[in-house]
Design a protein that fits this description.
Chains A, B: Pfam families: TetR_C_13, TetR_N. The structure is a homodimer. In chain A, helix 4 packs parallel to helix 7, helix 5 runs antiparallel to helix 9 and helix 8 runs antiparallel to helix 9. Chain A has a single domain, classed as Tetracycline Repressor, domain 2, CATH 1.10.357. Chain A is mainly alpha-helical and about 200 residues long. Chain A starts with 11 loop residues before the first helix and ends with a helix. Chains A and B meet through helix 7, helix 8, helix 9 and helix 10 of A and helix 7, helix 8, helix 9 and helix 10 of B. The first copy, chain A, binds a DNA duplex (30 and 30 nucleotides) through helix 3.
Chain lengths: ~200, ~200
DNA sequence: TTGTTTGTGTATCGATCACTACATAAATTG
DNA sequence: CAATTTATGTAGTGATCGATACACAAACAA
């Protein structure tokens, strides 16, 4: 039995994409329902009937962000031939993604709710979990590089992973403050310059 | 002529300090007047009579933050014997300041209004200006190090400054996410590990 | 056609937002 | 003692917050 009642008058995915951009630009709390419905081209009852609540919409927007925007940054970590290439790609792809021009600057996961004490703890926790996952991803890749002989057994994989995600997070602030793609790429290169010293 | 009418019933500096902690923890927009007046132990009319507005109170809180909390991080940049020592101290002092225990984690300047599209543009711009000033401070110190012969003339002082402030900003996110002092110190050491490669 | 189901638009809801009018309290000045 | 000045507490202001009640529109099933 396909759809029963009146069909939806708008594209759910397109509306979600618009909502993602609003959350990305303004953050969770500062994105009002008026902002969201205006950007999505629908009225509040349609939003609630389709997505449930502002928070549920946000979680869907985060999932879409991770799937579309985040993938270009993180997807090659596992498949890159070396840990060095994997992390260099993460930082360079970050510089590119944060200055694309047609999307908000910086990372939604980092910038959308950094306060942790806002009205909605679940929103903060979800973003925090995503940030942590990125660090774990890098740490796993570094551990694999140790197993495969790319890096010495003495490598402090956790410290390196923390360091590189810290740079990646800091690049969000720089991007929001207007840093150019060239500046972000130079920051990435500076960060990678510690590779030799940290893996020997 | 010392004070004329009824004397103020609370300590202005103490109240400002309390307000600073609220803004530091919750950010500008998420800090409601109810939060502020509760923490400050006063009613709204006293707040407005003394500080003018929420925004004016915030600007005073930022100034107090820079003066008290930020000084321990940035004050030795000019006086440190070398640029290397100056920046190493910035990062180590950052790790210490962000995990003090009796103050909120991370930097108020970075975390209090990262969205730039919130209701109040002047608040965002003021914080952005403070962030930029930190980068310029580092860049000036690096240029001086080139003049004094500590660093070669080929050093890209602007790139290095951008890189180290990026790490310093990223540490705010890590601190908010619960990173320990040891973790932040290790991140600082990783960041400094690129010094040799970047200055030769 | 009639009944059922689902989506949409209008017009709100109570709660909270930053902010303030107003009367009173507490000090100095004459 | 007034008279003046400043601060405080109560009780609100209009605006906006996230979220909905409700009537109607548009599809299908019978």
């Amino acid at each position: 039995m396909p759809q029963r009642g009146r069909p939806r008058g708008f594209d759910r995915e397109e509306a979600l994409r618009r909502a993602m951009e609003v959350f990305w630009t303004r953050g969770y709390d500062n994105a009002s329902l008026a902002d969201l419905t205006r950007a999505m081209g629908i009225n509040a009852p349609s939003l609630y009937a389709t997505f449930g609540s502002k928070e549920a919409l946000f979680h869907e927007a985060v999932a879409l962000y991770v799937q579309t925007e985040g993938s270009g940054i993180w997807e090659q970590v596992e498949t890159a031939p070396t840990a060095h290439a994997a992390i260099a790609h993460v930082l360079h792809a970050t510089a590119e993604a944060f200055t694309r021009g047609d999307t908000p600057r910086g990372c939604m996961i980092v910038l959308a709710a950094p306060q942790m004490q806002g009205a909605n703890a679940q929103v903060c926790d979800a973003l925090k979990a995503h940030r942590k996952e990125n660090g774990c991803l890098l740490e796993r890749r570094l551990r694999r590089a140790v197993e495969e002989g790319e890096l010495p057994a003495s490598t402090d994989c956790r410290a390196l992973a923390s360091y590189f995600v810290t740079v990646q997070h800091g690049m969000s602030i720089q991007a929001r403050d207007g840093a150019s793609r060239e500046t972000l790429l130079r920051i990435a290169d500076c960060a990678m310059a510690s590779w030799e010293a940290l893996t020997s």
